[in-house]
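thought: fold this chain, then report.
action: predict
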Amino acid sequence: MLSLSVEFKQQRHMLTPDKVIEIFVQVDDFCKEFETEIVKHQLDAGLYKVRDRKASLADSEIITILIAFHSGHFTNLKHFYLAHISCYYQDCFPGLVSYNRFVELQKRVAVPMMLFLKTRCLGRSRGINFIDSTHIKVCHNRRIHNHKVFASVAERGQCSIGWFYGFKLHLIINDKGEILSFTLQKAMWTTGTSN
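observation:
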């Protein structure tokens, strides 16, 4: 138990309030630009009512928490949110919501976060680069026919582990581990021909 608390204290000191504020400022500036561009290209709702209710946690705050989670050495988002953000950074995020609500709000920021990462957070090639891909399952193979969330976009695919239903994430990183580029695409499989 003692070693666990020492490890947690070391992780906590790696993410300082100044670093959280620095991440937030960059993300918030991007989100403001993103919102103005979205409003310019948004279609008119016509006679339909549009629900434009603001959440207590802003999009830039959600993205900041997610980036802070991935920039530390944390492996469990729930533990990070409940034992780290809620305890030590409540003054940085005054509108914190419950963990379950935070998980529900994550899908709202998927596109802005990917665009932020793609435009502002990529590293530079230093001559040695690595490329790899991994599968992202959206459900177990037995539940493919009942799955509805990604039914129109996810597909069956095959990787070194076996068959799966979901997406493939392709990453290019440099020798320091910085992401140079990434793409998320439907899982694919092809039938090979043997000679």
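thought: worth noting. The chain has two domains: 2-120, 129-186.
final: tokens above.
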